[in-house]
Amino acid sequence: CTQSSKVASVNANEHITSKLEEMVKNYESTNDKWRAFGYQKAIAALKKHPKQITTWEEARALPGIGSKLADKIWEIVQSGELRKLNEFQSNEQVHVLKLFTDVWGAGPHTALKWYQQGFRTLEDLQTKANLTSQQKIGVRLYNDLLDRMPREEARDIENIVREAAEAIQPGVIAQACGSFRRGKPTCGDVDILITHPDGHSHKGIFAKLIQKLKDIDFLTDDLVSVEDSGNQKKYLGVCKLPGPSSKHRRLDIIVVPYDEYGCALVYFTGSAHFNRSLRHLCKKMGMSLNEHALRTGVVRKGTEKIFEGIVIPTPTEESVFNTLGVPFRPPEERDH
Ligand code: DCP
Ligand code: MG
Ligand code: MN
Fold first, then answer.
1. Angle CA(162)–CA(163)–CA(165) in degrees, nearest 5?
2. Cα–Cα distances in Å, from 239 out to 171, 176, 284?
3. pLDDT interval class at 289 (50, 70, 90)
4. Minimum CA distance residue for ligand 1 atom 15
5. pLDDT tens digits for range 246-259
6. Contact of 51 with 59, CB cutoff 8 Å
7. Contact yes or no for 53/77 (Cβ under 8 A)
8. Dihedral of the CA atoms 113, 114, 116, 121 (nearest 10)?
9. Considering every ligand atom, which ligand is closest to the CA of 272?
10. Atom 13 of ligand 1, residue of closest alpha carbon
11. SS3 293
12. Which ligand has the shortest distance to the CA of 182?
């Protein structure tokens, strides 16, 4: 068994995990953390399992799957349905909590609070609830922000940001990562990574770029106008392509120094699940990986890091995979 096999590239049990993932969402929205956690462990085990589950015993034998979860899995295998999930979906409270947790800037805790305050609709929130500035945007643009855009639109957005960045700093690299780079047909947002190969010119770009995109009326709303993380800067906002029929779309822009480009590219390409798998692999080798750097010689005591380790230079994405001893995985194959 090689280390890379820990990151299974196809999910043979998608028909099961998709239903269990719905259950996780339901339990998260009712703040039932333990049940949500149990289902998540089961999903992870199923995703690692190389073949389709066909018997109850097979499910029960997987790590983290007890007899109750095996019953649920067996029910899906046999009937293609999960009654408990259908029950959830016909419950009013669950519907309202789902509506509310889908407001950008609101989590399960806030959704439950709103429910307990007697709010049931988005109009209730707009007229009666005490909303943060993010939640106000989330309610006002509710439908647009939940809608996934076709990848062609993500490419148009990438081009506008790239042109604006290029006008500010020639030679800049500006590329859409996330689901777009993984080749998905639709994207929940556009994640644009910006750097400059000369190693220092990335520094002046961030504030000028955001201002320029506002000047041309491309950015319509700020969600987080600047988030500092080490030498990286991140913007989270909303943009809109010109034209009367275009929708508001979520846009994330990250500016990073060139020596962090390899790790940043891996991180922002994702998927989030793939990143977790890589970090898990790192842990077993005394390494660590985040959007900034790959480190070796990390000393951990439980979950605490006693020594943060030494940075291994990883100028490219390939070098990150090589250093981890994992065969290179093209972005299209990084969904698990
Ligand atoms: N990311 C991560 N862990 C998270 C959130 C994000 O590792 N909790 C990384 C991996 C993601 C990338 O950042 O692929 C971009 O985050 P998005 O939330 O934009 O996710 P995607 O672009 O993958 O999907 P979507 O189409 O829903 O935007
Ligand atoms: Mg994205
Ligand atoms: Mn994003």
1. 65
2. 24, 14, 41
3. very high
4. 178
5. 999 999 999 999 99
6. no
7. yes
8. -160
9. 1
10. 268
11. coil
12. 1
Give dist(CA 196, CA 205) in Å, integer.
9
Which residues contact ligand 1 via a Cβ below 6 A? 178-179, 187-189, 191, 267-268, 270-272, 275
Query: And the tokens for 307?
Result: 């020594």
Q: Are 212 and 172 in contact (CB under 8 A)?
A: no
Among 241, 271, 266, smallest CA distance to 159 is for: 241
Type of residue at 32: D
Question: How far apart (Å, rounded) are the C-alpha atoms in residues 274 and 324?
Answer: 14
Q: Where are the strands (E) in the chain, listed by range?
A: 149-150, 173-176, 186-187, 190-195, 219-229, 232-240, 248-255, 288-289, 294-296, 299-301, 304-307, 310-312
**311 SS3 class:** strand
Q: Two tokens at 300?
A: 């951990």
Give the Cα separation of 118 and 113 in Å (integer).
Answer: 9
Q: Is the backbone peptide bond immediately before 271 cis, with ω within 30 degrees of 0? A: yes
Question: Whose structure tokens read 């307990």?
Answer: 116
**Strand arrangement, sheet containing 288-289:** 288-289, 294-296, 310-312
pTM, entire model: 0.79
Closest among 329, 316, 235, 220 to 274, alpha carbons compared:
329
Q: Is 128 a catalytic residue?
A: no
Supply the pLDDT for residue 15: 96
Q: Which of 167, 176, 169, 335 is nearest to 253 (CA)?
A: 176
DSSP state of 253: E
Residue 299: phi, psi to the nearest 5?
-110, 120
d(CA 142, CA 127): 15
Q: Does this complex have an ipTM over 0.85? A: yes
What sign for the dihedral angle of Cα 177, 183, 188, 190? positive
Integer Cα distance of 192 and 92 in angstroms:
38
Name the strand (E) or helix (H) holding 69.
helix 67-79
Q: What does the pLDDT look like over 56-95, one tens digit per residue?
A: 999 999 999 999 999 999 999 999 999 999 988 788 888 8
